[in-house]
Amino acid sequence: MTTTETQLDQAHALMSNNLDDDAARLRFYERLADGELFLLLAREAAGSDDEIEPELFELEDDTYVLVFDREERLAEFVGKPAPYAALPGRIVARMLAGQDIGLGVNLSVAPSSILIPPPAVDWLAATLEGAPEEVVAQVTEIKAPSAPEALIAALDAKLASAAGLASCACLAGVTYSDGRKGHVLGFIDAAEGAYNALAGAANEALTFSGVEAGEMDVGFFASEDVMAQKLVAYGLKFDLPMPETPEPLKPIAPGSDPEKPPILK
Predict the structure, then answer these.
(1) Which of 8, 33, 244, 245 could anchor a disulfide with 90, C-beta 3.0 to 4.6 Å?
(2) Which CATH number goes with the domain that contains 152?
């Protein structure tokens, strides 16, 4: 069994030690969905994801495919070279949804070894497909957020993967013209075409945070908007990381790099 602990191992341990904690269970499913999984295949993929054929196993009266969160864990389980596909967990869940197939995760090779039955896979796929409703409401008051720490931590983790999609996001408490109170997560200077992805990420953070009856609206604003300026002034700011810019390639004279001596013929 491999000994290097992964984020999925940590989330699984937290869930296992708190069996009655819905939030811990949700965090495990979130790590599973967000991470890259190595799916064991019956044969080499023909080219695209639509053409892969997972290896199927009958376990505990259900059919399962096997996934691992590290390539070496798959190799350890199989014990010989085997075909696999590296896919985000959310794609695997979507691919299996409605087919009465479960997930065998890191079986026998990691502390996060677990069987996820078909109904739980269907639930995960449906949860990930959920989209926030579009509403139009008039904000009458903006103030500092009073959101639970679990939601703030979930947003911080989720938005860390949204590099380059907006300059920042701000979470603030709001009161609407109808007296309703809640929170708004405002994205500032979001990239064109990124609205759905950012709204979906915010919705997932709320869902997997385990906050019951949580209410959080999502808005998109230009930095010069009055609303954006108020959100920055009163809200909790999340800086979205900038995408890494690859360094331009520069020609290197043969033999000039001491780590790469010239090839002698």
Answers:
(1) 33
(2) 3.30.300
Q: What is the pLDDT of residues 16-28, one digit of tens each?
A: 998 888 888 888 9
pLDDT, tens digit, for every residue of 98-123? 999 999 999 999 999 999 999 999 99
Per-position b or e across 53-63, b if 16+ CB within 10 A of its CB: ebbeeeeeeee
Residue 244 domain flag: no
What is the number of structural domains in the chain?
A: 2
Instruction: Determine the Cα–Cα distance for residues 183 and 62; give it in Å rounded to an integer.
Output: 42
Is residue 45 domain-resident?
yes
Instruction: Supply φ then ψ for residue 106, to 5 degrees.
Output: 50, 40
Asked whether the beta carbons of 54 and 40 are under 8 A apart, the reply is: yes
Q: Residues 106, 196: one domain?
A: no
